[in-house]
Amino acid sequence: MRIPALICCFVLLTSSSTTYADFVMQPNDNLAIVGDSITEQHLYSAFIEDYLLMCQPTPGLSVCQFGWGGEDARACLYRLPFDILPFKPTVVTTNYGCNDGRWTNLTDEIANTYRTNQTAIVETLKKAGVRVIVVGSPKPVDLYAYKGRNGADAVAYNKNLAALSAIAKDIATKEKVLYADVNGDITEAAAKAKTQYGSVDAMVGFDGIHPNSDGHLVIAYAFLKALGCDGNIGTITVDYSLKQAAGTAGQEVVSYQDGTVTVKSTRYPYCFAGSTDRADGNSASMLRVLPFNEELNRYMLVAKNLNAPRAKVTWGGVTKEFRADQLAQGINLAAEFVQNNPFKPQFTAVDSAVHVQEDQEQGLTRDLMFQVPRFRAFISPGVDAAWDQIVAAGISQHQKLFNAAAALVIPVTHTIKIEPEP
Hints:
It is a single chain. The chain is of the alpha/beta class. The protein folds into 2 domains: 30-226, Rossmann fold (3-Layer(aba) Sandwich), CATH 3.40.50.1110; 232-289 and 298-343 and 410-421, no CATH class. The chain has helices spanning 37-40, 44-55, 73-84, 108-127, 154-175, 182-197, 213-226, 292-296, 324-329, 333-336, 344-368, 372-378, 384-407; strands at residues 30-35, 62-67, 91-95, 132-136, 178-180, 232-239, 244-247, 251-257, 260-265, 298-304, 310-315, 318-323, 331-332, 412-421. The protein is globular and about 80 Å long. Residues 1-20 have low confidence and may be disordered.
């Protein structure tokens, strides 16, 4: 179920401390996105998969999400051999803590248990040959919508989650793995959103825990930065004096004449749903408070030597005017043309296929693969090969659905028109 709106949470944390790295994905990597009910919503996981398929693609990549509602780090540790490691992941992100805090005030026992189990997850993944591990911190709850459980209100529970976030970061440091500061990034974005939009009424989840697309975009942002995504989608450079145009890797200039350049793109800018003008729970509403476009989504147009003070730029049927100095420095088409751009139809098609794939993963991992050890116990010895075949068939079906989504990432041919204005 998609639960309305970003959780606006305000806790005593410093600014984001997500650990940035060089891009860690390698050809034929298998990424596992692991977590609790927030992961089970398969929104931030779909955003990550969309980005890695279209914006910063890696040959042979495969992605699978492993969300389980109500799960804590201990339960994840238990199920790793049954429904996660059989996929042979090479890169794993984890996001635990919300349930590990037990919805009460922090105690030494809660802190120590979380540290022990989250550390054990990292160590188990390492032993299984996982090359890259990203430990994500737990997101905070909302001060307005969260009603409290087990004697802890929102303020008290956020102190608990802040402490668990510090533990997660410490584990990542000691284990020499990557860290995504989900808690800090959401806290910072939510505070800015409250200032930007004035009222928080349209932005809080009804239970104060599970965000909608806007909050999930922040979570995806934290993990994509931790994975080392650089945001350089592509640059198209037009030189009026030389009467020529050129594109960077993934942006092939097909033709250029009189300020009109046609480009064939194999790398897409990230495309958003909703409006940037209001907090409506969709991903686009975060763009006024989250530097996603600036840091992860730079699709640049550079126009040199215009010999005019300004120019109109038409892209995807939309026209906007810019100063010559802005164009000479470069404008970010992805940020300037959010609502309509030529990539949006194909981007949406890929995203829809990704959701079909991730819907299947829910039943495959939780309802089938996790149950297989129990089913084996009911059946006399000698039929293990049959169970192995069933599991292999399920994984094969997952791969077919992933491949179907990946196959929709086709070159997009589009035209950018630049008209100098006197």
